Amino acid sequence: MKKLSFKAMLLAGLAATAAMGVVQSARAADEKYVLIHHSPDSETFWNTVKNGASLAAEEVGATVTFRNPPSGDLADMVRIIQQTTAEKPDGIIVTIPDLETVGGAIADAVAQGIPVVTMNTGTAEESKKLGALLHVGQPEFEAGKGAGERAKAEGMKSFLCVNSLFPNVAGQQRCEGFAEGLGVPLGEQMIDSGTDATEIANRVKAYLSSHQDTGAVLTLGPMTAIPTIKALKDNGMAGDIYFATFDLNPDISQAIKDGVINFAIDQQPFLQGYLPVITLTNDLRYGVLQANSVLSGPGFVTKHNLTLVESLAGKYR
To answer: Are the CB atoms for 245 and 219 separated by under 8 Å?
Structure first.
C-alpha cells in the first residue's frame, strides 16, 4: 500500500472537512419556525412584525409561519401553542399576553425540547421563568411612564386611556405607566374600548363628553388611534387635545404631521420579528446566544424626527 505524503494527507483532510461543512450547512438550512401572537386578524400592527421575521428567515435560509387566534381569544391561543408544540418545529416565537393563561403551554413547549423566544408582550423576567432563551420587546409600564412624563411637561394633569387590549396585561401596564408619569392615579381614566372601529369612536366621544376636563388622550395602537382620530375630528377636538399613541402606521404618521397626534411611542416591531429568527438560528446552528434579553423600545416619534421614519412606517417602523 502506497504511503501518502503529509501534503497529500493534509489535502485529503481539507477536502473531507469541506465536504462535511457542505453536509452540515445543508442540515442546518431551512429550519422551520412558528411565530404565534395574541392579536386578532384586524390588528395591522403585526404586518411590521411579519416583515421583520420574513426578512430574517430569507437571510438565513429558514422558513417562518404565522399563527394567531382570529378573534384574539387567549383560549384559542393556548390551543395554537399546544398544536404547534405537537408539530415539533425547530423553534417557536411567541407573545406572553397573560402569563397565567398562556404560560403553561409555553413552558410545556420548552420542556419538550423546542427552543422558544418570547417577544412583544410579556417581560424578560416572565420569559426566563418559562425557560425561553430570551425576550425581545418593550417594557410596557416604563414606556407608558415615559409618555406620561412628556405629557406632564406640557402641563397635562388628566387623560383618557383607550384600551383595546383586554385581557392582555400590556394595555393595563401602559395606562398605569402613563398615569404614573403624570403623577396621578389611573382611577377610571382607562376604558375598555373593544375592537370595533365604530364602537371605539363612539366610546371615546361619550367619555370626552362626560369628562370635559380631560387633558390628554392615550391610545394603545393603530386599532384605537385611527377611530380616536375620527372621534376627535367629529367633536371638533382634533389638534386641540393632547394626543399620544403607541405604535406607527401611515395614518398615525399623517396625524403627527397634521398636528392631531403629538407623538407616537415606537416599540420597533420590525426588530420584534427579526431578532427572534436570528437568535434561534444562531443558537441552533452555532450554539451562540446573547447573554441578555433585548429592549426594542420605547422610542418617541414627533414632528421633529418623523421624516426619518414615515416612509418606512407600517413596513419597517
So the answer is: yes
Q: What is the pLDDT of residues 81-133, one digit of tens each?
A: 999 999 999 999 999 999 999 999 999 999 999 999 999 999 999 999 999 99
* Measured CA distances, 95 to 29, 68, 102 (Å): 25, 10, 9
**Has this prediction a pTM greater than 0.90?**
no
Angle value at C-alpha 213, between 150 and 210, nearest 5 degrees: 125
Closest by alpha carbon to 272, among 27, 87, 39, 29? 39
Question: What average pLDDT score do residues 6-11 get?
Answer: 40
Q: What is the pLDDT of residues 77-94, one digit of tens each?
A: 999 999 999 999 999 999
pLDDT tens for 213-222 read 999 999 999 9
Rounded to 10°, the helix 222-234/197-210 angle is 50
Please count the helices (runs of H) and the strands (runs of E) in the chain.
11, 12
Which of helix, strand or coil describes residue 39? Answer: coil
